[in-house]
Write a structure and sequence with these properties.
With 231 residues, the protein is mainly beta. The protein has helices at residues 2-8, 212-226; strands at residues 33-34, 45-47, 49-52, 65-67, 70-72, 85-92, 95-100, 105-112, 115-120, 125-132, 135-140, 145-152, 155-160, 165-172, 175-180, 185-190, 195-200, 208-209.
Length: 231
């Protein structure tokens, strides 16, 4: 009897919840055509082209379709990319103090060390997108749909995810100043290991996966949000 009672009182080991990681499709490009002096036009389709150190600054490229293209050090400063699409593309060290691509589509895209200032990407659709490195000032993804997205080793001063729908998204080893999640809907949104200074939209944290350290950071914010006095 004593042995049975002792077994019943044995504390149970906490099982970590299963978190579905992003399902990323590697981008494989072959037989690309080099275009050293591209003449980009709005609404056109560009397929299988490599652009190196080219400039699209200030161009109107709304609705343009890029498929299986590689961009190396291309400048998109103040380029109008509303409704543009990037599919099976690699963007490396893309430069844009002002990056304007609202309602754009990114599918199977790898972005390496972007140098963006203000990035207007609201109401966009991202699927299987990976961002590695980079320092970004302001990223506006408000109202976007994000599926299978991973952002790693990136410094973002302000990340606006307000009213977005995000599934299987991971922020790994990132540093974020202000994170806005007001009205967002999350499922398997993993920010473990990412530092942040401030977060707004505390009522929309369902579906967010955090670690113990981040829980400590959130505790005083949650207490203030709920009107709890810690004495």
């Amino acid at each position: 009897m004593a042995q049975g009672a002792g077994a019943a009182n044995t504390p149970k080991t906490r099982t970590a919840p299963k978190v579905a990681p992003p399902r990323l499709t590697p981008v494989r490009l072959a037989e690309l055509t080099d275009d050293p002096s591209p003449d980009f036009q709005s609404g056109e389709r560009y397929d299988g082209v490599r652009y190196s150190r080219a400039s699209a600054d200030g161009l109107e490229l709304g609705g343009t379709d890029f498929a299986e293209c590689e961009f190396q050090g291309v400048s998109f400063n103040e380029t109008q990319l509303r409704g543009a699409s990037f599919r099976d593309c690699i963007l490396a060290e893309v430069y844009a103090p002002v990056f304007t691509a609202p309602r754009s589509t990114l599918r199977d895209v790898e972005i390496g060390n972007p140098r963006w200032g203000s990035a207007e990407l609201y109401e966009s659709g991202w699927q299987s997108v990976r961002i590695d490195g980079g320092k970004l000032d302001y990223v506006n993804l408000r109202g976007s749909k994000l599926t299978d997205v991973q952002i790693s080793d990136c410094i973002i001063n302000e990340l606006d995810l307000g009213s977005c729908a995000a599934t299987r998204v991971a922020l790994k080893n990132c540093t974020i100043g202000t994170l806005d999640v007001a009205g967002a809907r999350f499922k398997d949104f993993d920010i473990r290991g990412t530092d942040f200074r401030a977060i707004s939209g505390l009522e929309s944290l369902a579906g967010l996966v955090i670690d113990d350290y981040q829980l400590g950071l959130l505790a005083p914010l949650m207490a203030s949000h709920l009107g709890v006095v810690v004495a």
